[in-house]
Specification:
Layout (H helix, E strand, L loop, with lengths): L5 H5 L5 H4 L2 H31 L8 H31 L5 H13 L3 H11 L3 H5 L1
């Protein structure tokens, strides 16, 4: 019988060298751009629906498929970036407690923009990340 402790469930074996590696930085950049694109696509779809007087895309399967095609890369990128930036925030960010506390709000409440802003304004400017 396997017994899981709460510490075993919450701990991910991700090393600091991996989270600041060149491959991770490239992946996070693509994800951050996808997150901003998701925000733009959501805004554009809502704006187009408002201008055309349409309440739902159910009546137009082609438009719904097109919207989904543009939404999915942003959704996946935002999800991955959110997890990565939260992990960096919890485990590796050496900022002061006040700065970390201020970043809690955008990371938690303003998805997809919050993690992307954290990536550009904190993660990329971290001395250990910029050295690699």
């Amino acid at each position: 019988m396997v017994v899981l402790h709460s510490a075993d469930v919450l701990y991910l074996p991700i090393s600091k060298t991996w989270i600041i590696s060149r491959a991770a930085r490239r992946l996070y950049l693509v994800c951050a751009l996808a997150a901003f694109a998701l925000f733009g696509v959501i805004f554009a779809v809502r704006y187009a629906m408002t201008l055309s007087g349409v309440a739902s895309l159910e009546a137009s399967p082609g438009a719904a498929l097109l919207a989904r095609m543009f939404l999915w890369p942003g959704i996946l990128g935002t999800g991955l970036l959110t997890i990565a930036m939260w992990y960096f925030w919890f485990s590796f960010d050496n900022s002061g407690w006040l700065q970390k506390a201020l970043w809690f709000v955008p990371l938690y409440l303003f998805i997809p923009v919050g993690p992307a802003l954290y990536y550009f304004l904190v993660y990329r400017r971290n001395p250990e990340v910029s050295r690699c």
